[in-house]
Every structure is written in structure tokens, then in C-alpha cells.
Amino acid sequence: MIQKELKKLICYGLEKNLFTERDEIFVTNMLIDALGLDEFDCNEKFSNVDLESTLAAILDYAVEKGIIEDNITAKDLFDTKLMGLMMPRPSEVEFEFFSRYNVSPQAATDYYHKLSKDSDYIRTYRIAKDIKWISPTEYGDLDITINLSKPEKSLKEIMAAKNAPQSGYPKCLLCKECEGYAGRLNFPARQNHRIIPLALTDENWFMQYSPYVYYPEHCIVFNAEHTPMLVDRKAFCKLFDFVKMFPHYFIGSNAGLPIVGGSILSHEHFQGGRYTFAMEKAPIEKPIVFKGFEDVTAGIVKWPMSVIRLTGDSAERVIDLADKIFTTWQGYTDESVFVFAETDGEPHNAATPIARMRGDKYELDLVLRNNITTDEHPLGVFHPHAELHHIKKENIGLIEVMGLAVLPARLKDEMAELQKAMLNGDDIRAIESIEKHADWADEIKAKYSDINADNIDKIIKDEIGIVFSRVLEDAGVFKRDKKGQAAFVKFIEYVNK
């Protein structure tokens, strides 16, 4: 059995061009060594091989023979090792990428994205498990994802990872040293990982795809050095350097401060991809003219967060204006709307920038952020408020800012249980697992005159979308009411002084 499954894997690698026929014997020998086989004798030819089932069969054999332990961590480490043995060297991938780039940027990314999937670096069969839908709101159609891609680890695995020796190599999940790394109990294997070198401004950077694809061609662009996140003029320059290289991709940066800065602040990186988010589709609600920058079209975007959009023929002019707005914002205080540049020496004002090409024009969305906390809002004043934590408690980073909610896996089971309880007329407050949704459920029941088995799933999904729009409103520094919008205009006028 194992020889047949191994032959399937070899045929898969050939079919996906992970290696050539010239390399087949070499690759085969490395694979049989990894599996502890003394010989190999299978001359069958296979096509359209299903990678998931093939790897599963090989992993079952490895467990049976005591090569690996029977848990998800060990299996992930081992199947990544096997896929890594079939991969071209980084220099070969780089050569192929830039050869295709000479044809077109899209040809290059098409090749690289396909390789990332074919190599199982992007585990497409896991990502397919994510629950995704679109929710209509007053701000447009928001993308909602319940993230199920990460496999559930056992308590034993979690504890083993926790107790495993700590290592400073690689320093983090974004470091270039991850390329080809074998992994360990508390760090994923990356033997099938290949990164593409880029020059942004005068610095060395790399591009890769995210193994957890939240949207089409979700890529990560990261500094070659392990250096902290920083949003400044140079960051704006780097963003536009990237879109000049890949005009079919957008790219954005998390803010550089805790709470409003995403999950990894220790390593400077951006996120991009080939997708049009709701924020990009949102129209200009109030045009703005900035003095000295009449050549740059500007305006406040109709969005739950506080967004200034800049569009121009010159990237440099857009950068100059963005830098002026951002540096002004960093030192700006308006106590009437609880915006403080700093308290006790701690800075609070930050920004989330997103760059793209709009036709032949350069465009930057500058999302104003603030991370101040209070006793009432210990997680952040401009953060999802407590009444929304039953759906979304985590930080609002770049992806959420653009209109894609990444929600925790717990919601899958909780929503199923909630639907059942609502249809049965059960006392939701008496059910421990979903008690936190009780007030929300009451609001939903009051809103809809007829909730039945045929429509409840759509109703719940639509209402989750509305909750997410409220989450984004909470994160907006200038609220959508008259007072907030007047304060927004006041800031614009301050920039224009």
C-alpha cells in the first residue's frame, strides 16, 4: 500500500511541475528514506492525484510504523517535510518568477501563487472548511469569514508546545529564516516555503503568500530584517513601490501601535492581494481640497471608520500629502471627541494606510486610528465595545479595516446552537454555551416578525454582518453622527492651516 501511495505523491509532484522527470529518481530516493523504506518497486502511473487523501494515507503508515506520533502537530511537520523534498530550490523559484515577470507581473504572481498551493504550503483543502458569506449593510457588502482553517489541537499537543524549549530561531513567523525550516512543536514547518526577494525603497524585502488565505491571493510582504512595525513617510513610499511592481495587487499596512496594529508588531510587514474589498468600493462622501495639493483628489470616504482617500497622477504627490496628514494626526488632540495624541507620554494616534492603482492613478486610503484605553474600555475606546464581544473581541487590524471580518471558530457551533434554541423557544440565558448571545437574540427576535427554519440561517448571518459594521463604527475615531463628522472636518481644517 505505501509504495502505491508514495508513487501517487511522486506523480502528483511531476504533474504539478514541482520537479522534472530528470529529478524523479533523486526525489524518490529522498522520499523512501524519509519513510524508512528499504526498496521501492511501483511502476504504476497516476494522474489527477488527490493530494489530501494521498498524504493522509502516507501519514497513517508513518504513524503505524512509529515514524511519527499520532497527532496533528507531528503529522503537519512530517507531511511538510515530504512536500519539501519535492520542491525546487529557492534560487530556481526566484529565477522562474522573474523570468515570468518579464512577460507580465500577473504571469509572475500566477506562477508563484499556483506553486504555493501545489506545494501544500497553502493547504487549500483546509481553507475550504472556512465558512464565508457576504452581508449587506449601509456601507456595502461586507465579507464575513469564520476561520476554521487552523486544525484543532489536542490539550496534550498544546501543553507539549507550551513546555517545549524556546528558541530564538527563527525570531518570528515572518522572518526570512523560516524558508525551508523544519519546524518544531511550537513552530510550523516550512520546508515547502519559498519567498521572493523585492527591493522597496532602498531596503531588502520579501514576498510570500499567507498560508491562511483570507481573500484571493492574500500575500505578505516583509522586511528582510526583524525590525518593528513603523508607519511613516517611508512606509508610504514602500507601499507605492510595491503597487508600481504589481499594479494588479493592493497593499496595506497595519498601524504601528498596540491594539490598533494587528497581531504581529515585532516584524515590519504589509499585506496585499488581488481582491476588491467593500472599503475600496465605498464612495467619497465629502470632497476635500488640501492647500498646496489641489492636484490630488481627496475626500472623506463613506465608511464606518474614519478614512481619507487620496488619488493622484503622481505617487510622490500622494505620498507628500499623506505624510502631511499623518504627521499632523500624530500630534492632534480633540478632547470633545476623546481624541488624545498622547497621555502620560504614551502616543495614541496612528493610521492604517492602503495603497492601490485606480486605473492609471495612484490611490491611498488613510484610516485614522487611536489606541487610548479607559477603565470603561480597557481594551480600547476605539475598539469593539463589550456588548459586541460575543461576536468579535479581537483587534481590528488591516483586514477588518477593509471590510472583511475574521471571526473565531467557536461561532460555528455557537450559531448552530443559537438557531436551534431560537426556533425551539428555549431560554438562551439558561444555556451556558450561548448565554452571551442572549441580548443579541432578543434584538433579532424583536426585529423580525417571522423567524423560521427556512430563513433563520440567513437572518443570523445578515445580523452578524450588521454587528461587524457596528464593530467598525466603534473603531472609528470620528463617529458617523453630526458631532463626529463636524470633528472630522475640524481636523481637516487643522491640516490646512
Would you spell out the secondary-structure blueprint of this structure?
Elements: H1 2-15, H2 24-34, H3 51-64, H4 72-85, H5 90-101, H6 105-118, H7 124-127, E1 131-137, E2 140-146, H8 155-163, E3 196-200, E4 203-209, E5 219-223, H9 233-245, E6 250-252, E7 269-273, H10 278-281, E8 284-288, E9 297-301, E10 307-312, H11 315-330, E11 342-343, E12 346-347, E13 349-358, E14 361-370, H12 398-401, E15 404-407, H13 410-424, H14 438-447, H15 456-475, H16 482-495
Parallel strand pairs: 2-15
Antiparallel strand pairs: 1-2, 3-4, 4-5, 5-7, 6-7, 6-13, 8-9, 9-10, 10-14, 11-12, 13-14
Summarize the structure in words:
The structure is a single chain. With 497 residues, the chain is an alpha+beta fold. It is 38% helix and 17% strand. It has helices spanning 2-15, 24-34, 51-64, 72-85, 90-101, 105-118, 124-127, 155-163, 233-245, 278-281, 315-330, 398-401, 410-424, 438-447, 456-475, 482-495, and strands at 131-137, 140-146, 196-200, 203-209, 219-223, 250-252, 269-273, 284-288, 297-301, 307-312, 342-343, 346-347, 349-358, 361-370, 404-407. A 10-stranded antiparallel sheet has the order 3-4-5-7-6-13-14-10-9-8. A hairpin with a 5-residue loop joins strand 9 (297-301) and strand 10 (307-312). The model has no long low-confidence stretch (mean pLDDT 95).
